[in-house]
Amino acid sequence: MYLSDMHTHSIASGHATSCTISYMAKSAAAKGLKLLGITDHGPATLASGTASYFRSLTFSPKKRFGVDLFYGAELNILDPAGHVDLEDDLLSKLDYAIASMHVQNYRPGTCEENTLAYINAMRNPHIKILGHCDDPRYPVDYEALASSAKENAVVFEINEASLAPYGYRGDTRANNREILRCCAKYQIPILLSSDSHGAEHIGDFTYAAEFVHETMFPESLILNNQLPLLKVFLQTRLVSVHKIP
Question: Distance between CA 150 and CA 196 in Å, rounded?
Fold first, then answer.
């Protein structure tokens, strides 16, 4: 059993969910989670959270139903320069950010272009997680991504919604295998993420965990149960998880 899920979406993401943050926290508590990350889509996603919504999260309770809450955003990478859809002054008020590519906001480019976009985004000190970079529509150089992630103190996620039968990104297994190979090589931690839109899949890593364990990936590099380390890492700008005692 894993104790944290740092990639979830509430009603503020505007699609495929009708759950408030409070209801999501209640569901997380019922499933035995101790830490829940709310990462609604950035404003470039149609009908998603506005800048004022993300600003208001600063005043939201940090614990509900016994679950510690971290408030972040799943940012849209907008171009090969790595621009994202929230400004730094607002990001500095959130606990952390995920950077992802979505076809509505970033047209898939060449392997070189997509890789450059991720690398440039990772230079933003507020970005701590690369979101579902297993998407086969966006070919990338995983060696280059891993090297940059190590340098910029960013971790990869293994996304349940990519590997589950209900996923829509196609066959991501080869890409996830390459992510795990590079993370093991460079000793980069990972997070298992549900990418739950609403409460149904919060804390559900059925397929992601099975895949990770099949590859014999070290449990010591999975951050979901290392809660003190995870909290410090997500909230500390440009500090590698390896440098935290």
Answer: 27
